[in-house]
Design brief:
This protein is α+β, with helices and mostly antiparallel strands. Helix content is 29%, strand content 18%. The protein contains four helices and five strands. It has a five-stranded mixed beta sheet with strand order 1-4-5-2-3. About 19% of the residues have low confidence.
Length: 129
Amino acid sequence: MNRCYLPMRALLAACSSASSSSQTPAPAATTSRDMITEQEIRGANAATAYDVVVRLRGHWLRRRGTISVRDPSAGEVVVFLNEVRAGGPEALRGIRADEVREIRYLSGQDATIRYGTGYGGGVIQVLSK
């Protein structure tokens, strides 16, 4: 069995240089789980915001929570266009992709904090150019 032992000074120097390099901020991630940037939208080559979301973050459209007989849209994501409620996920089909600056997803919990009750399925916020 071959073991390597470092002198204490070498070990301290290695630890010191490792800790100083960890202070350098890491480069920003190019993609976000909760946001689609204008650059990503252009790269998706999609006609509508719905197509963009399906291609890049399809899981945003998934129903969440329980399904209610009294409220068939319960657990469905709600779309807001420039902070105005536009409807369910089908509203994204009426928004041209080339007119969109950014698309964000808010979880049910975050959407409820921001908009009140009735957003358990989350919110997709579309911001136009």
